[in-house]
Amino acid sequence: MDYSIIIPAYNETDQLAPTLSSVRASMAASILQGECIVVDNNSTDSTAETARLNGADLVVFEPINQIARARNTGARASQGRYLIFIDADTRINPTLLLQALYQLSSGQCVGGGAVVNFEGEVSIIGKCGIKLWEWLSKATHTAAGSFLFCLQEAYQEVGGFDERLFASEEVRLSKQLKSWGRRNHKMYFKILTVAPVLTSPRKLHWYSGPQMLGWVIFMLLVPIAVRSRKLCGFWYNRPNETSPSS
Fold first, then answer.
1. Structural domain count, the chain
2. What is the pLDDT, as a whole number, of residue 205?
3. CATH code assigned at 70
4. Long-range CB contacts for residues 156-163, cutoff 8 Å, separation at least 24
5. Which residue has the higher pLDDT, 31 or 132?
6. Residue 226: is its pLDDT beyond 60?
7. Is residue 206 part of a domain?
Protein backbone atom coordinates (compact mmCIF):
# COMPACT_ATOMS: atom_id res chain seq x y z
CA MET A 1 0.00 0.00 0.00
CA ASP A 2 1.45 3.38 -1.00
CA TYR A 3 -0.62 5.72 1.16
CA SER A 4 -3.37 5.80 3.77
CA ILE A 5 -5.88 8.61 4.23
CA ILE A 6 -7.12 8.75 7.83
CA ILE A 7 -10.29 10.63 8.82
CA PRO A 8 -11.26 10.92 12.51
CA ALA A 9 -15.01 11.37 12.89
CA TYR A 10 -17.27 12.02 15.85
CA ASN A 11 -20.97 12.45 14.96
CA GLU A 12 -20.14 13.50 11.40
CA THR A 13 -23.04 11.96 9.46
CA ASP A 14 -23.78 15.24 7.67
CA GLN A 15 -20.21 16.26 6.89
CA LEU A 16 -18.66 12.89 6.11
CA ALA A 17 -20.37 12.12 2.79
CA PRO A 18 -19.05 15.17 0.90
CA THR A 19 -15.63 14.71 2.47
CA LEU A 20 -15.44 11.09 1.34
CA SER A 21 -16.68 12.08 -2.11
CA SER A 22 -13.77 14.50 -2.45
CA VAL A 23 -11.35 11.88 -1.13
CA ARG A 24 -12.48 9.16 -3.57
CA ALA A 25 -12.32 11.58 -6.52
CA SER A 26 -8.81 12.61 -5.48
CA MET A 27 -7.65 9.02 -5.01
CA ALA A 28 -8.94 8.12 -8.47
CA ALA A 29 -6.54 10.67 -10.00
CA SER A 30 -3.45 8.92 -8.61
CA ILE A 31 -1.75 5.83 -9.98
CA LEU A 32 -0.50 4.99 -6.49
CA GLN A 33 -2.41 2.47 -4.40
CA GLY A 34 -4.19 4.03 -1.44
CA GLU A 35 -6.74 3.30 1.25
CA CYS A 36 -9.24 5.46 3.10
CA ILE A 37 -9.75 4.79 6.82
CA VAL A 38 -12.49 6.43 8.88
CA VAL A 39 -12.15 6.33 12.67
CA ASP A 40 -15.54 6.33 14.38
CA ASN A 41 -14.64 8.18 17.58
CA ASN A 42 -17.48 6.88 19.76
CA SER A 43 -20.21 8.50 17.68
CA THR A 44 -23.85 8.39 18.74
CA ASP A 45 -25.19 8.89 15.22
CA SER A 46 -24.75 6.88 11.99
CA THR A 47 -21.19 8.05 11.28
CA ALA A 48 -19.85 4.51 10.83
CA GLU A 49 -22.65 3.51 8.44
CA THR A 50 -22.24 6.74 6.47
CA ALA A 51 -18.54 6.02 6.13
CA ARG A 52 -19.15 2.50 4.79
CA LEU A 53 -21.81 3.68 2.34
CA ASN A 54 -19.69 6.51 0.97
CA GLY A 55 -16.43 4.84 0.08
CA ALA A 56 -14.37 4.21 3.22
CA ASP A 57 -12.18 1.14 2.73
CA LEU A 58 -12.03 0.52 6.46
CA VAL A 59 -13.95 1.82 9.48
CA VAL A 60 -12.33 1.39 12.88
CA PHE A 61 -13.67 2.30 16.31
CA GLU A 62 -12.00 4.40 18.99
CA PRO A 63 -14.04 4.55 22.23
CA ILE A 64 -12.28 7.52 23.86
CA ASN A 65 -13.28 10.91 22.47
CA GLN A 66 -9.99 12.59 21.71
CA ILE A 67 -8.75 13.81 18.35
CA ALA A 68 -5.12 12.74 18.86
CA ARG A 69 -6.17 9.27 20.00
CA ALA A 70 -8.57 8.84 17.06
CA ARG A 71 -5.87 9.77 14.56
CA ASN A 72 -3.41 7.38 16.15
CA THR A 73 -6.00 4.58 16.09
CA GLY A 74 -6.43 5.12 12.36
CA ALA A 75 -2.67 5.12 11.82
CA ARG A 76 -2.31 1.81 13.66
CA ALA A 77 -4.80 0.25 11.24
CA SER A 78 -3.07 1.70 8.18
CA GLN A 79 -0.82 -0.06 5.69
CA GLY A 80 0.50 2.89 3.68
CA ARG A 81 4.08 4.13 3.47
CA TYR A 82 2.63 7.64 3.56
CA LEU A 83 -0.03 8.96 5.96
CA ILE A 84 -2.51 11.72 5.20
CA PHE A 85 -4.77 12.99 7.97
CA ILE A 86 -7.94 14.86 6.97
CA ASP A 87 -10.71 16.22 9.19
CA ALA A 88 -14.23 14.91 8.60
CA ASP A 89 -15.52 18.37 7.64
CA THR A 90 -12.70 19.13 5.18
CA ARG A 91 -12.72 18.66 1.40
CA ILE A 92 -9.64 18.05 -0.72
CA ASN A 93 -9.09 17.99 -4.47
CA PRO A 94 -6.95 15.80 -6.76
CA THR A 95 -4.28 18.46 -7.26
CA LEU A 96 -3.60 18.69 -3.52
CA LEU A 97 -3.43 14.92 -3.00
CA LEU A 98 -1.15 14.44 -6.00
CA GLN A 99 1.15 17.20 -4.79
CA ALA A 100 1.34 15.74 -1.27
CA LEU A 101 2.15 12.29 -2.65
CA TYR A 102 4.73 13.77 -5.01
CA GLN A 103 6.46 15.55 -2.12
CA LEU A 104 6.56 12.41 0.01
CA SER A 105 7.79 10.21 -2.83
CA SER A 106 10.60 12.65 -3.67
CA GLY A 107 12.70 11.32 -0.78
CA GLN A 108 13.34 14.88 0.39
CA CYS A 109 10.11 15.67 2.26
CA VAL A 110 9.19 14.33 5.69
CA GLY A 111 5.70 15.80 5.59
CA GLY A 112 3.66 18.98 5.54
CA GLY A 113 0.25 20.55 5.37
CA ALA A 114 -1.81 22.88 3.21
CA VAL A 115 -3.34 26.32 3.38
CA VAL A 116 -6.99 26.32 4.42
CA ASN A 117 -10.05 28.17 3.13
CA PHE A 118 -13.60 28.17 4.47
CA GLU A 119 -16.44 26.86 2.33
CA GLY A 120 -18.86 29.58 1.27
CA GLU A 121 -19.08 33.12 2.58
CA VAL A 122 -17.91 33.84 6.12
CA SER A 123 -17.78 36.84 8.42
CA ILE A 124 -14.89 39.30 8.53
CA ILE A 125 -13.71 37.58 11.70
CA GLY A 126 -13.55 34.28 9.85
CA LYS A 127 -11.68 35.81 6.93
CA CYS A 128 -9.16 37.52 9.19
CA GLY A 129 -8.71 34.42 11.31
CA ILE A 130 -8.01 32.13 8.35
CA LYS A 131 -5.56 34.64 6.83
CA LEU A 132 -3.72 34.95 10.13
CA TRP A 133 -3.42 31.17 10.38
CA GLU A 134 -2.21 30.96 6.77
CA TRP A 135 0.56 33.44 7.56
CA LEU A 136 1.56 31.59 10.74
CA SER A 137 1.42 28.21 9.02
CA LYS A 138 3.69 29.25 6.17
CA ALA A 139 6.03 31.28 8.38
CA THR A 140 6.55 28.52 10.95
CA HIS A 141 6.01 25.49 8.67
CA THR A 142 3.20 24.18 10.85
CA ALA A 143 0.35 22.06 9.48
CA ALA A 144 -3.29 22.52 10.39
CA GLY A 145 -5.02 19.43 11.72
CA SER A 146 -7.49 19.59 8.83
CA PHE A 147 -4.76 18.33 6.46
CA LEU A 148 -1.42 16.89 7.51
CA PHE A 149 0.72 14.43 5.55
CA CYS A 150 3.91 12.61 6.53
CA LEU A 151 6.06 9.55 6.10
CA GLN A 152 4.79 6.56 8.08
CA GLU A 153 8.37 5.90 9.20
CA ALA A 154 8.77 9.39 10.65
CA TYR A 155 5.34 9.29 12.27
CA GLN A 156 6.17 6.03 14.02
CA GLU A 157 9.60 7.15 15.20
CA VAL A 158 8.32 10.35 16.81
CA GLY A 159 5.44 8.51 18.49
CA GLY A 160 2.51 9.87 16.50
CA PHE A 161 0.11 12.46 17.89
CA ASP A 162 0.66 13.25 21.56
CA GLU A 163 -2.32 11.76 23.43
CA ARG A 164 -1.65 13.96 26.44
CA LEU A 165 -2.98 16.87 24.38
CA PHE A 166 -6.61 17.67 23.62
CA ALA A 167 -5.74 20.49 21.20
CA SER A 168 -2.73 21.67 19.18
CA GLU A 169 -1.53 18.08 18.77
CA GLU A 170 -0.88 18.82 15.08
CA VAL A 171 1.40 21.71 16.09
CA ARG A 172 3.48 19.41 18.27
CA LEU A 173 3.62 16.71 15.61
CA SER A 174 4.71 19.27 13.00
CA LYS A 175 7.62 20.26 15.26
CA GLN A 176 8.59 16.65 15.87
CA LEU A 177 8.47 15.80 12.17
CA LYS A 178 10.61 18.81 11.30
CA SER A 179 13.19 17.70 13.88
CA TRP A 180 13.12 14.16 12.49
CA GLY A 181 13.61 15.53 9.00
CA ARG A 182 16.64 17.58 10.03
CA ARG A 183 18.20 14.48 11.56
CA ASN A 184 17.53 12.39 8.47
CA HIS A 185 19.14 13.73 5.31
CA LYS A 186 17.87 17.29 5.95
CA MET A 187 14.36 16.48 4.75
CA TYR A 188 11.98 19.45 4.66
CA PHE A 189 8.44 20.01 5.96
CA LYS A 190 6.33 21.81 3.37
CA ILE A 191 3.07 23.78 3.49
CA LEU A 192 1.37 23.37 0.11
CA THR A 193 -0.30 26.39 -1.45
CA VAL A 194 -1.22 24.98 -4.86
CA ALA A 195 -4.75 23.91 -3.87
CA PRO A 196 -6.18 24.93 -0.46
CA VAL A 197 -8.36 22.52 1.45
CA LEU A 198 -11.92 23.66 2.05
CA THR A 199 -13.21 23.28 5.58
CA SER A 200 -16.60 23.86 7.15
CA PRO A 201 -17.13 27.26 8.84
CA ARG A 202 -19.51 25.72 11.37
CA LYS A 203 -17.59 26.95 14.43
CA LEU A 204 -18.18 30.48 13.17
CA HIS A 205 -21.89 29.73 13.39
CA TRP A 206 -21.69 27.95 16.74
CA TYR A 207 -19.70 30.64 18.58
CA SER A 208 -19.63 34.42 18.52
CA GLY A 209 -16.57 36.47 17.63
CA PRO A 210 -15.89 37.48 21.25
CA GLN A 211 -16.19 33.84 22.36
CA MET A 212 -13.61 32.66 19.82
CA LEU A 213 -11.28 35.54 20.63
CA GLY A 214 -11.60 34.64 24.30
CA TRP A 215 -10.57 31.03 23.58
CA VAL A 216 -7.50 32.21 21.66
CA ILE A 217 -6.38 34.61 24.39
CA PHE A 218 -6.98 32.00 27.10
CA MET A 219 -4.91 29.39 25.26
CA LEU A 220 -2.07 31.86 24.74
CA LEU A 221 -2.07 32.84 28.42
CA VAL A 222 -2.57 29.31 29.76
CA PRO A 223 -0.85 26.96 27.28
CA ILE A 224 -1.05 24.01 29.68
CA ALA A 225 -4.82 24.09 29.11
CA VAL A 226 -4.33 21.90 26.03
CA ARG A 227 -3.83 18.98 28.43
CA SER A 228 -7.39 19.31 29.76
CA ARG A 229 -10.37 18.13 27.73
CA LYS A 230 -12.66 20.34 29.79
CA LEU A 231 -10.61 23.44 29.04
CA CYS A 232 -10.50 22.54 25.34
CA GLY A 233 -14.26 22.59 24.99
CA PHE A 234 -14.03 24.82 21.90
CA TRP A 235 -12.76 21.78 19.97
CA TYR A 236 -15.02 19.17 21.58
CA ASN A 237 -18.33 20.73 22.57
CA ARG A 238 -21.13 21.42 20.12
CA PRO A 239 -24.21 23.53 20.82
CA ASN A 240 -27.32 21.52 21.70
CA GLU A 241 -25.35 18.30 21.90
CA THR A 242 -24.63 16.33 25.05
CA SER A 243 -20.92 15.89 25.63
CA PRO A 244 -19.70 12.26 25.46
CA SER A 245 -18.79 10.65 28.75
CA SER A 246 -15.32 9.57 27.60
1. 1
2. 83
3. 3.90.550.10
4. 160/68, 160/71, 160/72, 160/75, 161/67, 161/68, 161/69, 161/71, 161/72, 162/68, 163/66, 163/68, 163/69, 163/72
5. 31
6. yes
7. no
